[in-house]
Amino acid sequence: MGKKLKNTGLVGLGVIAGIAVSLQFSAMAQKPVEPALPLEELRQLADVYGLIKSDYVEPVEDKKLLTEAIAGMVASLDPHSAYLDKKAYAELREGSQGKFVGLGIEIGQSEEGYIKIVSPIEDSPAYRAGIKAGDLITRLDGTPVKGMSLDDSVKKMRGEPHTKVNLTVLRKGETEPLVFAIAREEIHQKSVKGKLIEPGYAWLRISQFQEPTVDDLAAKIVELYKQDPNIKGLVLDLRNDPGGVLQGAIGVAAAFLPRDSAIVSTNGQLPDSKQIFYGRPEYYALRNDSDALAKLPDAVKKVPMVVLVNTGSASASEIVAGALQDYKRAAIIGTQTFGKGSVQTIRQLTPDTAVKLTTARYYTPNGRSIQAKGISPDLLVDENADGDGLNSLRTREADLDKHLSNDRDQEGAKTNRDELEEQLRVLAMEKQRKPLEYGSGDDFQLAQALNHLKGLPVQLAKTESKLVQVAAPAAKKDLSKK
Is 220 a catalytic residue? Predict the structure, then answer.
């Protein structure tokens, strides 16, 4: 395998970098399943356990061996099934609730290998300490971060409330590194933001689907309509939204569709995995008994819409995009989505541990399977005016080892072509682009979305022609080997 691209994305401390999963927490008592036990294989497992205990170079704790055996068994199934130890289970619950203990910064990886501050969260410890967008973290508690993954850096900045972490920071215009000692606090992260881009046109961004997302979305829409009661077009931005809580996706789609519309369906082995989820409060209300969407102005059901997606749009994002596309409620603009269309159910084992198990696939209202294929945009538009940049090199579900197959359609071609990736990587890095700020004046895809809403020409993607040109020599080489 060739080198893997390190994706640069927005990561809130406390939210694990990468592709989040849509979750269904099942509190229903499950009827015990008692299949015939494979006694011979279990005997071999016991034999290996005994050999490790008696012959390994140093003693190994029973708990470690058994925990790792469980983790390995679950992880062997697919990329999204996992054993959740105490720490992982706590982090998952915190992330779904939109809160975590950390510093309150959104980070990415700089071209130099340092941690780049994309933005401090308002009124967070980092914000109050004077951390600024564009700062580069070079050390965490004295440990160099160069070469450290985003996951590992996030973990080092997490911790117990009121404990401190020291950040060594390079800042443009400063001749010496700056050192900040920042105390960790519980951070409440808003998953929804929005603004009027220009008179008559609104932009709503969802960064992750959390428990408060539906309430936050409703409040933001009401606020925007108070600012301009005559909104003529709305852009729902789901780019780089890795997913999250299923109920959040149902509620967001329901906000723009007629009441009682079918939003998504699931199918798996268990009876409770064969379901259709509708745009009604019982399917999306999590935080209280009231219906947050009841406050919305009637106009939001009919306002012309665009949904922006890219390769980083996954899971719950794809549910929303797929539903709005099937009902022809919105034009989907951007690039092919990630293709994470499987349901993970959390089965609690102890008060502090659980198993996250893939139990079903997701389907759009028209019965399309999202798994390993994703949502194809109605209008394919690159991230930049002259190409899709690093977005085109991101890994998709179909690239993951042991990914669940699409049971209703042919999967998209695997994008994991090492020689092609390396050439495109060089082309993209030569441009030395600064990180894109969604919703800014430099946001090319947003500009094309506004053009579409206004009936103006949209600049479609050049990606396909570039792929053909760069891939042609490799294809010829492969044919000559046969």
Answer: no
Annotated catalytic, 132? no
Angle, vertex CA 239, rays to CA 11 and CA 263, nearest 5: 115
Q: Which of 237, 326, 382, 388 is catalytic?
A: 326
Provide the β-strand partners of residue 206.
192
315 catalytic? Reply is: yes
Pair 79, 18: CB distance under 8 Å: no
| Stated pTM of the model | 0.77
Residue 6: is its pLDDT beyond 70?
Answer: no
CATH number assigned to the domain covering 99-187: 2.30.42.10
Give domain 192-466's CATH number out of 3.40.50.720, 1.10.3210.10, 3.40.50.9100, 3.90.226.10: 3.90.226.10
Catalytic residue from among 191, 207, 317, 340:
340
Q: What is the pLDDT of residues 146-185, one digit of tens each?
A: 878 777 888 889 888 999 999 999 998 898 999 999 999 9
Catalytic hit among 22, 315, 342, 392: 315
